[in-house]
Amino acid sequence: xxxxxxxxxxxxxxxxxxxxxxxxxxxxxxxxxxxxxxxxxxxxxxxxxxxxxxxxxxxxxxxxxxxxxxxxxxxxxxxxxxxxxxxxxxxxxxxxxxxxxxxxxxxxxxxxxxxxxxxxxxxxxxxxxxxxxxxxxxxxxxxxxxxxxxxxxxxxxxxxxxxxxxxxxxxxxxxxxxxxxxxxxxxxxxxxxxxxxxxxxxxxxxxxxxxxxxxxxxxxxxxxxxxxxxxxxxxxxxxxxxxxxxxxxxxxxxxxxxxxxxxxxxxxxxxxxxxxxxxxxxxxxxxxxxxxxxxxxxxxxxxxxxxxxxxxxxxxxxxxxxxxxxxxxxxxxxxxxxxxxxxxxxxxxxxxxxxxxxxxxxxxxxxxxxxxxxxxxxxxxxxxxxxxxxxxxxxxxxxxxxxxxxxxxxxxxxxxxxxxxxxxxxxxxxxxxxxxxxxxxxxxxxxxxxxxxxxxxxxxxxxxxxxxxxxxxxxxxxxxxxxxxxxxxxxxxxxxxxxxxxxxxxxxxxxxxxxxxxxxxxxxxxxxxxxxxxxxxxxxxxxxxxxxxxxxxxxxxxxxxxxxxxxxxxxxxxxxxxxxxxxxxxx
Length: 587
Known about the structure:
Keywords: Membrane, Transmembrane, Transmembrane helix
Strand order of the largest sheet: 10-9-8-11-12
Number of helices: 20
Largest sheet: 5 strands, parallel
GO molecular function, one term: alpha-(1->6)-fucosyltransferase activity
Region (Disordered): 49-78
Structural class: alpha/beta
Transmembrane segments: 84-103
């Protein structure tokens, strides 16, 4: 038996009717483990009573009110006998109903039930990804996730979100039906197993979900080092991974840093849980993983069928993590599991920091030409200062659409003077400033140009320029170009998504398809922005100190690149955005 949990829409199957009154006939179609009206209508909180099919008519009870309205004399003894007989008869009726309920065969549902969820036959699974309730080999109601074998991978973000929402609802209801209240409390633990969940692989083995023919690696999976070394030749003899975590790089967040942090955390978590790790870049706004990095480590096994990769629950054999599901994977339960409750403040974050560091060490391998440039650039900037007995202080200045946490600057930016003063406080030695910023005007600010010695850019391989700089470099005005557009004020989401695309106003940006059918020229511009960001971080990470604002993801990434001992214990990573401390993924 399968119960579809999809919410009703034009192409969906669920039906909502909070005023539904479930009859015994409809109820008889449910399995013995799913026997409450609250399952069919979770909005009707008062319908918690156990329902059962109607039994035979009970024998007539002695009339307690005489006919014709005449009052008959009664005694205490007769009343006692009547109460005993009534009690015996009620007990017999209750016993009959229980036996009838337990041993009467239940017909398989074949049609709709006018409720929150639609029940369909085993041969009529929904043609859309959804959470469903099935009857396992033991006759127990369990929930699982049905993803049609022919569905595109990855699913759309809203589909992943909806599956997780459905999963929570079905899990809650099934546990309520089984009267597993204490277990529900324990389910708050990150690694507590949901006893009502049936893994997709087990559901397939029991014939409850269709088998999926393994078709190798999905098209959008990033090639690992073994595949790259084999020059894309097929790798034979590998078994399907027993457990895996796939990070889908698709996100509605225009920032590169959020993808990095989530991917590193996902990798660290996969290694901790002994899962194979895969990356999918099918619809990443920045293009292909290989444009920026060398291939990731090989898992040594093959990915499972895409219909086995689900966003929820975390205990599933093969899970998917993306920007759409990051709250489910790295939410409150994750924080409670991995924070050290015995420590105070930032020290509580040690294990979370460790997961990110594991991901950084494995995945932050820049493409060869950019990596060579970073090595040479760092040597050129840092070596002379170190030989002269000074220290190199890296500065990451984030402007654009990211504002500080500190209250008085929440609608502005941290003054550059604070960066300078903090750099001077780091050492009595001579300090050299190395600056990276999303705002090109920062490099020309008096605070940095009059510093002794003047501050240097972290990298100059890819430079984001202001309109004034572009016009100056262009020289004579081109009559065929109406206006030169520069990178003004820093990184803004709408500016990023409009790069290379024909937009006239802000409303046009909202209508853009940010991940699909992107013009080649627009993708090239996005790639330049991404590579500049990565090289900035890579050069700053080799400084002796770094000063930045913790409200910026780039700043938190720099702490991970410095490492726990340097950044947190020795204090070589310094935040100038109020008294806030480093924290992993901030929602």
